[in-house]
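This follows on from our talk about sequence and fold. Go ahead and set the record down below:
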Amino acid sequence: MRLILLFLLGSLAICARAFAADPVADATAKFLAGLPVRNTPLESFANTPGWAQHATELDRAWQQVEKRQLSKIRAWAPQALGTAYEDTGPMFYMFSGPDFLYANAFFPNASTYILCGIEPVGAIPDLEKIPRGVLPSSLSNLRKSLDAVLSFSFFITKNMKVDLKQKQLNGTLPVLYFFLARTGYTIDSVALVALDREGNFVPEGKGTTPGAKIVFSGKSGRQQTLYYFSSDVADWAVKTNPNFGKFCELQGQGLTLLKAASYLMHSDNFSQVRGFLLAHSKIIVQDDSGIPFRFFKKDKWDIHFHGRYLGPINRFLKNGQLDLAKENAAAAPQLLPFSFGYQWQPSRSSLIVATPK
């Protein structure tokens, strides 16, 4: 009996370790997010010059985005998305960059978040390797990289190319850390990963697709996984490097979000990713910059309109959609209570919720 008891206690200890948070990664995320790091391995870093200002500025920005956007999405999404809001399947977010914030706001229960963009993954943040004298400017650069998404709900690609190539705190991981910490999650583990041509995980090498895997948990203790892959999904790129697409195929049917996607899938140069999403989505939530409206055939999709479609912003005027304008006007949907996509004012924002029949 004693041996059995010792075995059970040992098993429980192993399970506890398996689900325990990575104290350094989690503390790093909190530090970068301007949250308290008392009683963590990084407690002394709170004395870094400029960190108090960093925390104050991020507190203010977060309170604003919470009031203006996130609280309203949380109130809107359960009814507008129906059972998809509670769905625990995988979630696809192409052209996302490191935008875990809105992926989680619309689909908080997804088991796996799959984000992708052309922005580099970067190194796993390690504050011990950053000279203390350089850290204040690194934190300032991080705030700068967050400005657009916190103010307008999307990242600006050309700015990200500069913001994420800093010597310290580079790539998408610092931004992902920020979002995870500020949305109340605990980071359990972080690893750099790579995909081969079959979509399987392999050691990084020639021809592999770089990515990051973050396992995290909320107050309930349920673990969820976030993947970010640096991958070009243009048809020509997929032909030579199918790795990321193969990985997505292995995930089965999923939940899809498309926002501020530069109208790339309006071009036949992105026909493969467009076709994948149409074939593998249980639901598609998107603005007009995602999949062209003409691909949602009435005999195959149920469409619900939200907000008034007023056409693209000036930079993308050539991508106006007369069929979408006509159907949206006929539906006369209520205004969105939050902004979405390039039309950053709620009164000018619109989206569709498409579910396959």
Observations:
- Residues 20-285 form one domain.
- Residues 1-18 have pLDDT under 50 and may be disordered.
- The chain has one domain: 20-285.
